[in-house]
Amino acid sequence: MEFKGAMGGLYRLTEWITRFAATNLLWALCSSPFLFFLIMKLIVMSQQLTNESLQMNWAMAIVAPLTLFPATAAMFTVVRKWVMGDSDIPVFRTYFAGFKQNYKQSLIGGLFYTLLTIVMYVDYTVYMTQFPNLQMIGVIMLILLIILFVSMFNFFSMVAHYHMSTRQIIKNAILLTLIRPFRVFSTLLGSAVLVYVGIRYPVLFIFFIPCIIAWFAFFNFYGTFLKMQEQLQKQQTDGELEGKEVAAEETKN
């Protein structure tokens, strides 16, 4: 039975709320070890327990590649279908199919991003606190750290969208961030706004915020993908026309 008018709009809105909430809850469930240590870190930070805070950092670094990255890649698998127009997919089945299919790549990518983040963050901290004369290097490390973090949006989008080796996905995710920064940094800005809203209303993190960020990130990525594909097709068409013109000239001669 299909509703029309205001009832139809309300029904569709309820459907989308349910889809986002269900996907977000699946993500929270599969990311629960990482989220547990994150919550513990926030608690010990509020109590100014430095050693315990460092321990939570290491705990999050260990479990992130095993849980957070595969769970996020699975969430991108679901939102990819939505962005591409397939909104009636079974959320539960699609999520766990993406989790299983992309687990290895997201695990390896998670190890790469986690290790590189640790190295860059330690370098940034050392240069900014221990070497006052070399703080410019610390600033450069911070910029590289931001680029690395932003490239994760492209990494998860590519894991969900392409069949490539993990090395190619990581390389292309970073390159796409550098050559097409506007859409990716608009994703970062939009995510920052959503996180701010989530800080004011924490319950939204449980049901909506991460999934909305993933949807927005893939929406921007897919827009970039379509634009690059259109440019490539135009170049191929122009090349074919140029080839035909050259052939025609040679025939006349």
Overview of the structural elements:
This is YesL family protein. Keywords: Membrane, Transmembrane, Transmembrane helix. The chain crosses the membrane at residues 21-44, 56-79, 106-124, 136-160, 181-199, 205-226. It holds the Pfam family DUF624. The chain is mainly α and 253 residues long. Helix content is 88%, strand content 0%. The chain contains ten helices and no strands. The chain has helices at residues 5-30, 32-46, 50-83, 91-101, 103-129, 135-161, 166-179, 181-200, 203-207, 209-252. Helix 3 crosses helix 10 and helix 6 crosses helix 7 (166-179). The mean pLDDT is 87.
Structure summarized in a few sentences:
This protein is mainly alpha-helical. It is 88% helix and 0% strand. It is globular and about 60 Å long.
Low-confidence stretches: none
Number of helices: 10
Structural shape = globular
Q: For the CA atoms, what is the radius of gyration?
A: 22 Å
Strand content: under 5%
> Could you tell me the mean pLDDT?
87
Largest sheet: none
* Assembly annotation: single chain
Helix content: over 70%
How many runs of DSSP E, i.e. beta strands?
0
Strand pairing plus helix content: what structural class?
mainly alpha
Q: Report the order of strands and helices.
A: HHHHHHHHHH
Separation, N- and C-terminal Cα atoms: 69 Å
Pfam families: DUF624
Protein name: YesL family protein
Keywords: Membrane, Transmembrane, Transmembrane helix
Transmembrane segments: 21-44, 56-79, 106-124, 136-160, 181-199, 205-226
